[in-house]
Amino acid sequence: MDKLSLHQLLNIYVWFGLGIILFLLALIARFYERLSTQRTYYQWFVVPLLALAIATVRFSQLDRVTGDPLGDLCLFVAGITLAALCYHVYRLMTGGDEKS
Q1: Are 89 and 40 in contact (CB under 8 A)?
Q2: Residue 25: which residues within 8 A CB-CB, separation 6 or more?
Q3: The whole model's pTM is what?
Q4: What is the pLDDT of residues 26-79, one digit of tens each?
Q5: CA geometry: angle at 59 spanning 56 and 54, to 5°?
Q6: What is the pLDDT of residue 100?
Q7: 86 secondary structure, DSSP code
Q8: Helices 6-36 and 69-93 meet at what angle, rounded to 10?
Q9: Which of 73, 23, 28, 83 is nearest to 51 (CA)?
Q10: Which helix (H) or strand (E) holds 87?
Q11: How many CB atoms lie within 10 A of CB 69?
């Protein structure tokens, strides 16, 4: 069995921290959806979580930080999806979708 490098260990450690944060964001969106009956699409928070997991596994296997097309694409998908979901929930929670 190969020994884990410090980079691989930190990569996995950071992924678990980000996974917990994404899980909490999904719980907040779910709570708001049930409270307000407005659709928050909290189920879609699994997309950035899985994309980050794939990128973490890929970069840990290669022992690299960047430069892998699949890993970089997964990070891009995770970032765009997370930004869109957070912006949508933010707009709902602050009343930004109300028509004047």
Answers
A1: yes
A2: 45, 85, 86, 89
A3: 0.85
A4: 999 999 999 998 999 999 999 999 999 999 999 988 888 888 999 999 999 999
A5: 40
A6: 42
A7: H
A8: 30
A9: 73
A10: helix 69-93
A11: 8
